[in-house]
Please model this.
Amino acid sequence: MSEGCGIVDPDAPEPSEKKRWYMNEKPQREGMYEPTPHEHCANILTHGIAILPSLIIMQVLMSASHRELQYYIMIIYGIATILLFAMSTAYHLAEYLYRPHQSTGFSRKLRYYLHLMDRSTIYFFIAASATPWLALRHCALLGKNLKWIVWVSAILGISYQFKFHERYKTLETVLYFIVSAIPYLGMITMSDRTGLPLMLLGGAVYAIGVVFFKLDGVVPFAHAIWHVHVLLGASIHTYAIYATLLGPDKYNPFPEVDFD
Ligand SMILES: [Zn+2]
Model:
């Protein structure tokens, strides 16, 4: 037989297990993608670099607040932003340190729970991002109620994560999309729509990022590209909040704003 004679057929396909630094094979069906070491590092760095700036920006937002309500909402928004980047960094770091073939019982559990926390924090962040707009602007009845609906949806989304984590991946993405879209319904009922184009631009950046979120193993560094879109989207939304929602409110004087 020819096996082992040392002659390689030039027409034979490349062996699938060939190691590439920029991308691994796409997983079968709903399987978990295994990033290359370079992709792991990019995943850690692209959100790790945002943790410290998020802390500083939270301070800036708090000191730019002119009313108690603005101040407390900025605390919630700031904490959600820091948690989003910190949980993502912690999860990707654990993924890098304890890759599947190196996982013991403890590290497998650690990776699982950090992933769960990473996904749950996204719902918390979505609700915290919508709250400044829905609570600090005068909205019609729909917008007024949406500030509670968005938090209830986030809690339901987090509960879903704990019950069905990673079981229906496409459904998970659709749920994120729906919860993220809820606040925009309220925003179109606002009497003052200053800053809304920036909100829509940030939303569009997130939406484009979701495309890369689904392209692991197809586009090199797809997950890190998704992270960069999150970073950009969050920066645009944070700037929009800072530029249009804080400080003295000429349209809605203090006594007219409540949190009910
Ligand atoms: Zn990630």
